[in-house]
Please model this.
Amino acid sequence: MHAAVRPGAVTAGLPSAVVVHEVDLLDHDGLRALVSSTQPTQIHHLGGMSSVGRSWEEPVRTVQVTGLSTVVLLESALELQERIGRAVHFVLASSAEIFGEPSVTPQDESTPVRPVSPYGSAKALAHASVGVYRRRGLPASSLILYNHESPRRPPSFVTRKITQGVARIVREGEGVLTLGNLDARRDWGWAPDYVDAMMRAAHGPADDYVIATGVDHSVRDFVATAFESAGMTDWEAHVAIDPDLFRPSDPAVLVGDATHARKVLDWRPTRTFESVIEEMVRADVEQVKPSAS
Model:
């Protein structure tokens, strides 16, 4: 099993059977050479700039890293497939952000793609490119992943910021969690479930698939549930709103309809919104140590 990571990426905890190759997504020749030399039967492309907020600060780099790298990998996969005479299955981790401000709720594979952020635009380029190469004969699937969480989520994401903040407040008995828009609504699922969907797609019919729970909650709901799972109900006293943390454009409601994935891939989410948050808070409470007095 081969895994391509960006230079300096954390690889601790990977199974010993995984062979790691470091490559920069901006190094197009390096990406082509890696695909050509390793000759994979499957390519799962999860790489890219993962922060919607940061994409506003680096819009050009976001398109280069997230969008163009996908085109390079798709072209490399097709070249390999034609050269060796066997299928190279390609699975892209796309995003619900490609829908921007959707006109319908919930969204499915037929929902118009009209992103409202540089991140969404870059993912839309990648998503559309998968369709182009699928029509050229590459078994390529784009999985439109809605928000997926676990204790491995980086602290730069608001969900992990919340669970880490709750853990500190619980441990120390005081503190304030500073957040932005509490009214944004998202469809949050369990990250391992979404990885399972990607693996199923690599062995199923090549297509576009929405991967979501079908249930939306607000950031406010997430905060309240996180505090409640830690035994605190007076969470409002520990939360402050900073207008500077609001995004220039933030879709109000994103919730997905995964009927297609359920029927074709036999995929279903295994965890509830509450259980995902409980697991994240539990993990962070175990990690956070009280401040030295």
